[in-house]
Amino acid sequence: MTSELYFVIRHEGAFERLHQVEVPETTIGRSESNVLWLPDLAVSRRHAVLIRDGMVFVIRDLGSRNGIRLNDQPVREAVLRDAAEVQIGPYRLKTFFCLEAAQANADDQDGSTQSVILEGIPGGRIERQALQLTPAQRRVYDEFLKGRSEKEVASLLNLSIHTIHTHSKAIYKIFAVVSRAELLSHCAVHPQHPDHRETRVEDEA
Angle at CA 87, nearest 5°, toward 6 and 168? Predict the structure, then answer.
Protein backbone atom coordinates (compact mmCIF):
# COMPACT_ATOMS: atom_id res chain seq x y z
CA MET A 1 0.00 0.00 0.00
CA THR A 2 0.97 3.66 -0.14
CA SER A 3 0.33 6.94 1.65
CA GLU A 4 -0.52 8.71 -1.62
CA LEU A 5 -3.71 8.44 -3.63
CA TYR A 6 -4.72 10.10 -6.90
CA PHE A 7 -8.09 10.16 -8.63
CA VAL A 8 -8.36 10.44 -12.41
CA ILE A 9 -11.84 11.95 -12.62
CA ARG A 10 -14.12 11.64 -15.64
CA HIS A 11 -17.59 13.11 -16.07
CA GLU A 12 -19.87 11.25 -18.47
CA GLY A 13 -16.80 9.59 -19.97
CA ALA A 14 -14.80 12.79 -20.58
CA PHE A 15 -11.59 13.47 -18.65
CA GLU A 16 -12.15 16.29 -16.18
CA ARG A 17 -9.25 16.53 -13.76
CA LEU A 18 -6.61 14.82 -11.65
CA HIS A 19 -7.09 15.07 -7.89
CA GLN A 20 -4.53 14.26 -5.20
CA VAL A 21 -5.94 13.16 -1.83
CA GLU A 22 -4.15 15.27 0.77
CA VAL A 23 -6.28 15.27 3.92
CA PRO A 24 -7.32 12.51 6.37
CA GLU A 25 -11.01 12.91 5.47
CA THR A 26 -12.08 13.89 1.96
CA THR A 27 -15.78 14.68 1.78
CA ILE A 28 -17.29 14.16 -1.67
CA GLY A 29 -20.52 15.65 -2.98
CA ARG A 30 -22.49 18.26 -4.90
CA SER A 31 -22.12 21.00 -2.28
CA GLU A 32 -19.20 23.38 -2.84
CA SER A 33 -18.25 22.91 0.83
CA ASN A 34 -16.90 19.41 0.08
CA VAL A 35 -13.20 18.77 -0.36
CA LEU A 36 -13.96 17.00 -3.65
CA TRP A 37 -16.74 18.89 -5.41
CA LEU A 38 -18.81 16.96 -7.98
CA PRO A 39 -21.42 19.46 -9.24
CA ASP A 40 -24.10 17.23 -10.75
CA LEU A 41 -27.71 16.74 -9.65
CA ALA A 42 -27.23 12.96 -9.60
CA VAL A 43 -24.71 13.49 -6.78
CA SER A 44 -26.00 14.14 -3.26
CA ARG A 45 -24.87 17.27 -1.41
CA ARG A 46 -22.79 15.12 0.96
CA HIS A 47 -22.52 11.89 -0.98
CA ALA A 48 -19.52 10.04 0.44
CA VAL A 49 -16.37 10.40 2.48
CA LEU A 50 -12.89 9.02 1.84
CA ILE A 51 -11.04 8.22 5.06
CA ARG A 52 -7.29 7.81 5.12
CA ASP A 53 -6.00 5.58 7.91
CA GLY A 54 -2.24 5.28 7.62
CA MET A 55 -1.67 3.61 4.26
CA VAL A 56 -5.27 2.46 3.83
CA PHE A 57 -8.01 4.47 2.07
CA VAL A 58 -11.64 3.64 2.83
CA ILE A 59 -14.61 5.12 0.95
CA ARG A 60 -17.96 5.26 2.75
CA ASP A 61 -21.42 6.19 1.50
CA LEU A 62 -23.08 8.91 3.59
CA GLY A 63 -26.64 7.81 2.92
CA SER A 64 -26.69 9.26 -0.59
CA ARG A 65 -29.72 8.96 -2.87
CA ASN A 66 -27.95 7.10 -5.69
CA GLY A 67 -25.23 5.33 -3.74
CA ILE A 68 -21.69 4.52 -4.82
CA ARG A 69 -20.29 1.71 -6.93
CA LEU A 70 -16.83 0.20 -6.80
CA ASN A 71 -15.75 -1.65 -9.94
CA ASP A 72 -19.43 -1.66 -11.03
CA GLN A 73 -20.61 -3.24 -7.76
CA PRO A 74 -22.73 -1.28 -5.24
CA VAL A 75 -20.97 -0.78 -1.90
CA ARG A 76 -21.64 1.05 1.34
CA GLU A 77 -18.02 0.98 2.49
CA ALA A 78 -14.89 -0.43 0.90
CA VAL A 79 -11.10 -0.27 0.91
CA LEU A 80 -9.73 1.26 -2.30
CA ARG A 81 -7.12 -0.70 -4.23
CA ASP A 82 -4.80 0.51 -6.97
CA ALA A 83 -6.56 0.94 -10.35
CA ALA A 84 -10.01 0.55 -8.78
CA GLU A 85 -12.88 2.65 -10.15
CA VAL A 86 -15.42 4.45 -7.99
CA GLN A 87 -18.66 5.58 -9.62
CA ILE A 88 -20.64 8.46 -8.10
CA GLY A 89 -23.50 9.54 -10.34
CA PRO A 90 -22.06 10.33 -13.80
CA TYR A 91 -18.54 10.62 -12.36
CA ARG A 92 -15.96 7.85 -12.49
CA LEU A 93 -12.96 8.17 -10.20
CA LYS A 94 -10.06 5.89 -11.14
CA THR A 95 -7.68 5.33 -8.22
CA PHE A 96 -3.90 5.25 -8.46
CA PHE A 97 -1.16 5.10 -5.84
CA CYS A 98 1.44 6.47 -8.27
CA LEU A 99 1.33 9.92 -9.91
CA GLU A 100 3.03 8.69 -13.08
CA ALA A 101 0.45 5.92 -13.51
CA ALA A 102 -2.39 8.41 -12.97
CA GLN A 103 -0.95 10.78 -15.56
CA ALA A 104 -0.43 7.93 -18.02
CA ASN A 105 -4.05 6.84 -17.60
CA ALA A 106 -5.29 10.37 -18.22
CA ASP A 107 -3.04 10.73 -21.26
CA ASP A 108 -4.21 7.41 -22.72
CA GLN A 109 -7.80 8.66 -22.70
CA ASP A 110 -7.37 12.33 -23.58
CA GLY A 111 -4.41 13.85 -25.39
CA SER A 112 -5.14 17.26 -23.87
CA THR A 113 -3.98 16.03 -20.46
CA GLN A 114 -0.36 15.44 -21.41
CA SER A 115 0.79 18.36 -19.25
CA VAL A 116 -1.25 17.33 -16.18
CA ILE A 117 0.85 18.27 -13.16
CA LEU A 118 -0.15 18.71 -9.53
CA GLU A 119 0.85 21.59 -7.31
CA GLY A 120 3.65 20.57 -4.97
CA ILE A 121 5.26 18.04 -7.31
CA PRO A 122 8.97 18.98 -7.56
CA GLY A 123 9.70 20.82 -10.82
CA GLY A 124 6.05 20.95 -11.80
CA ARG A 125 3.98 23.91 -12.98
CA ILE A 126 1.13 25.14 -10.83
CA GLU A 127 -1.78 23.55 -12.72
CA ARG A 128 -3.86 22.20 -9.88
CA GLN A 129 -6.49 24.92 -9.81
CA ALA A 130 -7.17 24.66 -13.54
CA LEU A 131 -7.54 20.88 -13.20
CA GLN A 132 -10.53 21.44 -10.90
CA LEU A 133 -12.51 23.12 -13.68
CA THR A 134 -15.21 21.20 -15.52
CA PRO A 135 -14.90 21.15 -19.34
CA ALA A 136 -17.59 23.86 -19.59
CA GLN A 137 -15.87 26.01 -16.96
CA ARG A 138 -12.54 25.52 -18.73
CA ARG A 139 -13.96 26.93 -21.97
CA VAL A 140 -15.21 30.02 -20.13
CA TYR A 141 -11.92 30.32 -18.25
CA ASP A 142 -9.91 30.18 -21.48
CA GLU A 143 -12.01 32.98 -22.98
CA PHE A 144 -11.62 35.09 -19.83
CA LEU A 145 -7.84 34.76 -20.15
CA LYS A 146 -8.15 36.20 -23.65
CA GLY A 147 -9.70 39.31 -22.09
CA ARG A 148 -13.32 38.68 -23.07
CA SER A 149 -16.20 39.87 -20.89
CA GLU A 150 -19.04 37.66 -19.67
CA LYS A 151 -21.34 39.06 -22.37
CA GLU A 152 -18.76 38.38 -25.08
CA VAL A 153 -18.19 34.83 -23.83
CA ALA A 154 -21.95 34.18 -23.70
CA SER A 155 -22.29 35.30 -27.31
CA LEU A 156 -19.23 33.36 -28.47
CA LEU A 157 -20.25 30.09 -26.77
CA ASN A 158 -23.96 30.57 -27.50
CA LEU A 159 -24.87 30.38 -23.81
CA SER A 160 -27.06 32.55 -21.60
CA ILE A 161 -25.44 35.30 -19.53
CA HIS A 162 -26.85 33.55 -16.44
CA THR A 163 -24.99 30.34 -17.33
CA ILE A 164 -21.75 32.24 -17.92
CA HIS A 165 -22.16 34.08 -14.62
CA THR A 166 -22.68 30.76 -12.81
CA HIS A 167 -19.51 29.37 -14.39
CA SER A 168 -17.56 32.53 -13.54
CA LYS A 169 -18.53 32.29 -9.86
CA ALA A 170 -17.32 28.69 -9.76
CA ILE A 171 -14.06 29.68 -11.50
CA TYR A 172 -13.45 32.54 -9.06
CA LYS A 173 -14.03 30.20 -6.11
CA ILE A 174 -11.55 27.64 -7.42
CA PHE A 175 -8.87 30.28 -8.02
CA ALA A 176 -9.67 32.11 -4.74
CA VAL A 177 -10.32 35.43 -6.52
CA VAL A 178 -13.35 37.74 -6.61
CA SER A 179 -13.20 39.30 -10.08
CA ARG A 180 -12.07 38.73 -13.63
CA ALA A 181 -9.33 41.34 -13.21
CA GLU A 182 -7.98 39.46 -10.19
CA LEU A 183 -8.15 36.19 -12.14
CA LEU A 184 -6.09 37.70 -14.97
CA SER A 185 -3.57 39.03 -12.46
CA HIS A 186 -3.32 35.61 -10.81
CA CYS A 187 -2.74 33.87 -14.14
CA ALA A 188 -0.13 36.45 -15.14
CA VAL A 189 1.85 35.37 -12.07
CA HIS A 190 1.28 31.66 -12.85
CA PRO A 191 0.98 31.50 -16.67
CA GLN A 192 -0.38 28.28 -18.14
CA HIS A 193 -0.84 29.01 -21.82
CA PRO A 194 1.59 31.20 -23.81
CA ASP A 195 -1.13 32.49 -26.14
CA HIS A 196 -3.17 34.02 -23.31
CA ARG A 197 -2.85 37.80 -23.18
CA GLU A 198 -4.42 40.32 -20.83
CA THR A 199 -6.24 42.74 -23.11
CA ARG A 200 -9.26 44.04 -21.21
CA VAL A 201 -9.95 43.81 -17.50
CA GLU A 202 -13.20 45.71 -17.00
CA ASP A 203 -15.65 43.59 -14.97
CA GLU A 204 -19.39 43.34 -15.28
CA ALA A 205 -21.40 45.13 -12.63
Answer: 70
Give 88-112 pLDDT, tens digit per residue: 999 999 999 988 888 888 776 554 4
* Cα–Cα distance, 198 to 59 (Å, whole number): 43
Domain 5-119 fold is Tumour Suppressor Smad4 (2.60.200)
pTM greater than the 0.85 cutoff:
no
Q: In the CATH hierarchy, which fold is given to the domain comprising 133-189?
A: Arc Repressor Mutant, subunit A (1.10.10)
The number of helices, as runs of H, and strands, as runs of E, in the chain is 6, 11
Long-range contacts from 193-199, C-beta under 8 angstroms, 24+ separation: 193/142, 193/145, 196/142, 196/145, 196/146, 197/146, 197/147, 198/145, 198/147, 199/146, 199/147
